[in-house]
Structure formats: structure tokens, C-alpha cells
Amino acid sequence: MDMVSVCKTDEVAPGTSLRVEIDGLPPLAVFNVDDEFFVIDDTCTHGDASLCDGEIEDGQVECPWHNARFCIKTGKALTFPAVVPQKTYVVRVLDGTVHIEKND
After folding, report:
1. Nearest CA among 46, 40, 33 for reference residue 6
2. Total number of domains in the chain
3. What is the pLDDT of residues 11-44, one digit of tens each?
4. Contact at 8 Å (CB) between 31 and 38?
5. Are 83 and 71 in contact (CB under 8 A)?
6. CATH, residue 40
7. 50 CB contacts (<8 Å, ≥6 apart)?
8. What is the C-alpha to C-alpha distance for residues 48 and 61, in angstroms, rounded to an integer?
9. Spatial separation of the C-alpha atoms in residues 84 and 36, rounded to whole Å
10. Is residue 104 scored above 80 in pLDDT?
11. For residues 76 and 73, what is the distance between their CA atoms, to the nearest angstrom?
């Protein structure tokens, strides 16, 4: 298992997200839901919008383009027009830094 540092925990306040770009990975969205961190691909599976620009509520993020909603924890597409889930990453928080497991 390869761990990749994504950001510092203090960069993502509770209830917000942060778009992160790391070489070799698609743009990532880091979410802080009640001080628990989740990372999913940032680009909506329905239409190339950044989910970090969407509304966050009740553990879900709404795409700013077509209002599709995704579960932040599982990546599951919850409403149309999206039907393809977002890729999720295993997250580890170590010494104030959010890390993900990178699978090659």
C-alpha cells in the first residue's frame, strides 16, 4: 500500500471541501464532515464539473451543474442525472495530515 499526502487537516474546515491536484491522480475533493475526512474524485461523473464548487449538506455533495447528488462517504450517485458513482479513496489522518491509499 502506497500512502500519498493530500493536505493538512486545518486546510479543510468542517462542512467544507478542498480541491487538490496531485501528480498521477485525477483532481481530488477532500471533504470534512463533522471532523471526519473523505476523499473522492472531484470531477462529477455526469459532466466534468468540480464537486468542490457544489453544495455540501447531510453528508452529500450536489454537483453545481446539473444538481446530481453524491454520498461523500461512499461516492454513490444518489440522484439523476448522475448514475455512475464517484471513485473514493481510503483515508488515513496522521499527525494533522490527510493521506490516501494510492492503488496503482
Report:
1. 40
2. 1
3. 999 999 999 999 999 999 999 999 999 999 999 9
4. yes
5. no
6. 2.102.10.10
7. 19, 27, 29, 42, 43, 44, 64
8. 15
9. 24
10. no
11. 8
CA-CA-CA-CA torsion sign (100, 21, 15, 58): negative
Give the DSSP letter string of the chain: -EEEEEEEGGGS-TT-EEEE--TTS--EEEEEETTEEEEEESB-TTTS-BGGGSEEETTEEE-TTT--EEETTT--B-STT--SPPPEE-EEEETTEEEEEEP-
Per-residue cell: 41? 474524485
Distance CA 51, CA 70 (A): 9
Model pTM score: 0.95
Closest CA to 95 of 5, 32, 1: 5
Share of the chain above pLDDT 90, in %: 93
Q: Which domain holds residue 70?
A: 2-102
